[in-house]
Amino acid sequence: MRVIWTPEAQQDRVDIWDYIAADSQRAAVKMDELFRKAAARLANHPKLGR
């Protein structure tokens, strides 16, 4: 399965990045990596989410 990020979800991700990066760029990278890994898990196991 392929995960497709909607434009709204992509914007949310950017907004979250900007918000966290204002305090810590390292933390923003870590959070974005968590999002990427979660999407990869969902792609591999589609019944994990809705």
Estimate the mean pLDDT confidence: 91
Q: Roughly what fraction of the amino acids lie in strands?
A: under 5%
What ranges have pLDDT less than 50 throughout 5 or more consecutive residues? none
> Tell me, what's the shape?
elongated
Salient structural properties:
50 residues, single chain, mainly alpha
Task: Summarize the helices and strands and which ones pair or pack.
Elements: H1 7-21, H2 25-44
Helix pairs in contact: 1-2
What does this structure look like?
The chain is mainly α and 50 residues long. 70% of the residues lie in helices and 0% in strands. It has helices at 7-21, 25-44. Helix 1 (7-21) runs antiparallel to helix 2. The two termini are 13 Å apart. The mean pLDDT is 91.
Give a short synopsis of this structure.
By secondary structure, this protein is mainly alpha-helical. The protein has helices at residues 7-21, 25-44. The longest helix has 20 residues, at 25-44.
